[in-house]
Amino acid sequence: MTRLLHNWLTLNAERAPESIAVVMESQAITYGELERLSNRLARGLKDADCRRGDRVCLLSPKSIDAIVAILGIIKADCTFVPLDPQSPAARHRKIIESCECRCILAAGNTAPLLDEIFAAGAFDFPFSVGSLGDARIEGPHCRAGFSSSDFSTYSAAPLEYRNDSADPAHILFTSGSTGVPKGVVITHANVIPFVEWGKTYFHMLPGGRNSCHSPLHFDLSTFDIYGTLAAGAELHLVPAEANLLPHKLADFIRRSELTQWFSVPSILNYMAKFDAVKDNDFPHLRELLWCGEVFPTPALIYWMRRLPHVRFTNLYGPTEATIASSYYTLPTCPADERSSIPIGTPCPGESLMVLDKNLEPVPAGEIGDLYIGGAGLSPGYWRDEEKTLEVFVRKHCSGDGSERIYKTGDLASVGEDGLVYYVGRSDCQIKSRGYRIELGEIESALHSLEGLQECAVVAVTLGGFEGARICCAYVPLSGHSTGPLTLRKELSRLLPSYMLPTHWLEFDSLPKNANGKIDRPKLVEDFKNHEAPAA
Length: 535
Fold this sequence. Notes:
The chain contains 15 helices and 27 strands. Strands 4-3-5-6-7 form a 5-stranded parallel β-sheet, sandwiched between helices. Strands 12-13-14-15-16 form a 5-stranded mixed β-sheet, with helices on one face. Strands 17, 18, 20, 21 and 22 form a 5-stranded antiparallel β-sheet that branches. It has 4 domains: 31-187, Rossmann fold, CATH 3.40.50; 193-341, ANL, N-terminal domain (Rossmann fold); 350-424, Roll (Luciferase, domain 3); 433-529, ANL, C-terminal domain (GMP Synthetase, Chain A, domain 3, 2-Layer Sandwich).
């Protein structure tokens, strides 16, 4: 088995150096070029005093240069820390301070953002700034900068690596409840088993064309990048502007002749609502994967009916368990729009457990807390032992042993078919007017109604007997005059009265977080700050 993530690139650069590795619109780079450029960049980072285990931040839009940088960082025995160019400077400062980076690599139009980061004052540790372009970036609070032109003098030959598979490959910073981003540490050994399994299960082969839709700071892109490199396939970077119009994104899939698509469901739901997919569309596509959210069943049916030649797989797994921990490939198109799609069975080397408060399995059909164990489990949060111990716990096994498991914060149940079904977030199981309610069940019913482009149900805590107010944010389809009274009337045919939302807000589009998922905390704040109409 591969020991380090970048070994796949080196193997395929030796096997087929002229094969295309990465494509971005009209630009492309071969495996041989990607190997040579990343080797040079790694040597440049070492010359800039980057050592084993040092964190290197990458501030760059998705691009071929960014892929070179990611590989160069881990080839330098360092840890890749992505910075989202769309996030504010204040958040970047928190991440940079938390990881105490040795170097920031920047590309694209990020100079104004860097200026804003530096304008807030000096950091308590030294670091350098490198440009992936020809011009150097000079900062008031960092060591002398360097540019990609400086790296051209370095050898392109393979390096000697000191890293071990247990060393961190990257740290992904997610939102923290305290306002400080929390860094999820992911090692080479966490990623490799899933990639090796996924390459085989999804029939990823040399010459295949795989999407890279997710941003580089989201762990779905980890499988896009390393799964493609492991297979010797082509990675097609989806430009951000393609997401603005669903028909433009559909055209990208056609023109790129993609064989595999992987994304969060929101974009697939968006394309379905605007009828962007034709019957028997995307003739080269073989695999469609999604992860990160529930894929509304009506939208899934839309896709499956139009693409009978494609295999559809639901993947489940939080960042803390590396890409995905379970999978379910649909054998047939669902017949009922309100059918629940299981998250399925554990991937090889992983385990899913639905447990009670005593960490004992709950009976089939009952709801419990979902825990994950296995090879993908993160070592924990960067320099936050308290938070790590809170959610990475030990479960006693038969005999004298114990297993380290992660409490996902999700609720699940095991069906009569033996498959695991996602129920919702533990904080989305609410009590309202004395009733226990799953917000996901309300959303599922809403998705089956006509006239809605998007919808999300959140709860606003009130306290007392009433418990929580059920609120619905929605986007009507173009041409539909759907309002709260109409929606409530239609929903009342599917749900009991105590489950009907009492407050409604109409949006032009629902807010999304940096990973493209619906930003539910933002919706809660919107409802708190707005006298939303009751129905």
